[in-house]
Amino acid sequence: MTFRTTARTVAATAAALLAAVAPLTANAQTPPSSQWRASPITLSSLLQDGYKIVAVVNGAHVNGGSADTIFVQRDQSAFKCVDPQQPDAKSKTPATPPACFELVPPSGASAGSEAK
């Protein structure tokens, strides 16, 4: 596989992942019916485990503030990590801690029910 082919594959994968999850980046609190399940793992741990950053959304508005959302992927596994921006020094509002969410099949769907 040439570098160009590899780069195109990575770009296409990143674009597909971003298109699938972009509507969810506007809200860091993930509803229970979502395809994202809260995970105790950190972005640092994911990167050390071989996950690659495939997309970053800067400045999504979350709970009155803004946050960066980082999407990582390895093989058929994907996570999004939401990193809230620190409030300015004048603000009394505490910063929400960073959180990662694992992409899972939608609730009520079995793993074998996906279209092939």
From TrEMBL:
Residues 1-28 form the signal peptide. It comes from the Bacteria. Keywords: Signal. Residues 82-116 are annotated as: Disordered. This is Secreted protein. It comes from Paraburkholderia agricolaris.
